[in-house]
Amino acid sequence: MNNPELYISANDVQRHDADVVVKKFSSKMQWHPKGEDTLIDLGSGSGDVLMDIVYPRIPKNFQRIVCTDVNPTMISYARQKFGHVKGVEFETLDMATDTLPEQLKGQFDHVTSFYALMYARTQRQAIKNIWELLRPTGGDCLFITLCTHPIFHAYKVLSKMEKWAQYAIDVDSFIPPQQNCQEPRKQFMEFLTDAGFTDFSVELQHKTYDYRSVEVFKTNMMAVNPFVERMPATLRSEYMDEALVEAFKYMGNKIDPKDYCGVLQIPYTLLVVYSRK
Fold first, then answer.
1. Is pLDDT above 90 for 1?
2. CA geometry: angle at 97 spanning 83 and 134, to 5°?
3. What is the CATH number of the domain that holds 95?
4. pLDDT tens for each residue of 45-78
5. pLDDT above 70 for 2
């Protein structure tokens, strides 16, 4: 996912879910009465969710906002687009790193993350890092992570096919562990407890999103697909067509995607987590 503009063109679901969650929890977050809050966002990608949805709800006299992502291309794009905003910084950061930079430890009142934790190399370590990023005196975090989605099933199935296996040898790195977890909520509660959190809410939400057509869904899924960039351009559409077939099977839809007409409803599940230190 090295094309920020393509990603932005296809992140309607992420923006919608982030907007709903931030609206719900912004009044519960522990904003300082006198302002001067510090906030770090993990897995910011192109930065548009942070700046368009979170930033407007932060007290105007905030002290510092740090936009981070593991992908330098995304951070470079975010810096170019939002670098003019006073008080906002941009850093390349792996949220699941074993060696969190010392200059970031204990520096933040708030940690946010939207649609990024599912790609963390180790979610348990990522949540430990969130604890470390918050000030010793306390703070809170709000994040959304995707648990299950038909496209993840398709990733796995295609990775076992001889034609596509060479492009997806690291497929498990791009499938949330919750895709096949029987109790994802319980698992995340254990992660939070192990990190040191005791005051938290974890909601498992079953959702659907309506795409105008199969073609729109295909285009959006291609924009966030981590494997298509590795294959010749001549194979990408064919790969996505086969991915759609497997996604339809996962949903129990017996119609060939090429023959499907009208709005396509895609089911998925999210974990919405709010926690205080």
1. no
2. 65
3. 3.40.50.150
4. 999 999 999 999 999 999 999 999 999 999 999 9
5. no
**Alpha carbon distance 12, 103 (integer Å):** 34
Q: Are residues 229 and 106 in the same domain?
A: no
Say whether pTM exceeds 0.90. Answer: yes
CA atoms 179, 67, 8, 20: torsion sign: positive
Q: What is the DSSP letter of 137?
A: T
Identity (one letter) of the amino acid at 81? Answer: K
Extract the tokens encoding 4. 């920020």
Same-domain status, 101 and 234: no
Q: What is the residue-averaged pLDDT of the chain?
A: 95
Indicate the number of domains in the chain: 2
Predicted confidence (pLDDT) per residue in 135-194, tens digit: 999 999 999 999 999 999 999 999 999 999 999 999 999 999 899 899 999 999 999 999
- For residue 167, the enclosing domain spans 149-176+214-261
Burial of 188-227, coded b for 16+ CB within 10 Å and e otherwise, reads bbebbeebebeebebeeeeeebebeebeebbebbbbbbbb
**Same domain assignment for residues 235 and 159:** yes
